[in-house]
Write a structure and sequence with these properties.
- Helix content is 75%, strand content 0%.
- Helix 1 packs antiparallel against helix 2.
- 1% of the residues are buried.
- It is found in: Cell membrane.
Length: 134
């Protein structure tokens, strides 16, 4: 075991552990989200593709069954916009900025004036003189 010689080393060590722990939690959550998305994709679309190949080989798949498997895949595509906001905080924030129904009450809404000033680049600026420019 190495004993830190200075308080700054102990602080840096605990900070690096906290940083590593935070990133490992993010990596675990990201892999969990990816696993759920891929798992749902395979569960929904794999039967469709297997049945499609079987249909090409033996023409033995009833049309109704094929339609059910097709709609199962469509349902998976419908679930993606629901899964992303449930598991991804960044996705929630991005959607919240654009959809008024998803904004939090604590977030300030930009006014029309501030939006037009931001878009026209005519907002408040630091005073510049000819001396500073040259």
């Amino acid at each position: 075991l190495q004993v830190p010689h200075a308080p700054s080393q102990a602080l840096a060590s605990s900070e690096s552990r906290r940083f590593t722990n935070k990133h490992s939690k993010k990596a675990l959550k990201a892999s969990l989200t990816l696993g759920i998305l891929l798992g749902m994709f395979f569960v929904a679309w794999l039967p469709f593709f297997v049945t499609n190949v079987a249909q090409a080989v033996c023409v033995c798949v009833p049309a109704g069954f094929f339609d059910v498997l097709t709609w199962l895949g469509y349902c998976n595509s419908t679930m993606n916009p629901i899964i992303y906001p449930l598991f991804m905080r960044d996705f929630k924030r991005a959607i919240g900025k654009f959809l008024p129904c998803c904004r939090r009450s604590a977030e300030p809404r930009p006014s029309a004036i501030s939006l037009s000033m931001r878009n026209s680049n005519s907002g408040p600026r630091a005073a510049t003189s000819l001396k500073n420019v040259l």
